[in-house]
Amino acid sequence: MSDSRTYLRILYLLLAFPLGTLYFTVIVTGLSVGVGLAIAIVGFLILILTLLVWLVFARVERELAIYLLGAHIRPMFVPDPTPCRRGSDCSGHWAIR
Amino acid sequence: MTWKSLTYLLIEFPFGVFAFTIGVTLISISLALVLYPVIYVVLTALYQQGLTDSGGSMFPGVSIDGTFSSSVFVGFLLISALGVAFTVVSAALMNGMGWLWARFAEVMLGADESRLQVAAAKAEAQVEHARAERADQSRRALIVNASHELRTPVASISAKGLIPLVW
Predict the structure, then answer these.
(1) Which pTM value belongs to this model?
(2) CA distance A42 to chain B (A)
(3) How far is A70 from chain B (nearest CA, A)?
(4) Whether the Cβ atoms of residue A37 and residue A43 lie closer than 8 Å to each other
(5) What is the ipTM of this complex?
(6) A20-34, B9-23, B46-60, B127-141 — which is least confidently predicted?
């Protein structure tokens, strides 16, 4: 009871309903409209957009789970061990050295 | 990670409905039980002021009629104590639900264990490669030096042998 983690977790449980509803509605709508309109070219654009939104949602959920639930979540992307040199592709690296 | 995260996001909807229902129910019951004596006092006072018409009942055998009974109040204090216990238990219950969902999030939102292992193996291979490169470099340097150190005296010896032939 005196632990602040408990209150943060309860806050998360209450937030999970509106957020979960938002994720479900947006993703399911995006995917079905995208697939339905795929015979026209617009559908693919909608699918790509839905994919981006879904990645943003996943990122938001990661942060929420880490800060509110206290989850120890592994990194989303594994850093590339090959050295990152100037001029080469450094996108897989944590920090641009 | 992306497919797992999609599953996670879609499952969060039913989970959110479930958790919200349970959470709101537990919080309302806790509040109502804890505030039982307060509600009794407030309702009695409202009745005395004539702000409520019908008294109604708060408990079997106890009706709000403007008279404040201290024994009823003590009874409601006991209900309040029960409410405190209920609050502690329900907070623990919700904490447990959050804990479980955190474990689920850890599985669904992080990189795969296999990917981490591949990255670790890659890093190890990188180190080994650098070491092999260094070893090869020193071997080559040794050959160059040794051949120089051997050839120079051999050249001078053979030249000394050739001098009388030329002269």
Answers:
(1) 0.69
(2) 22
(3) 7
(4) yes
(5) 0.75
(6) B46-60
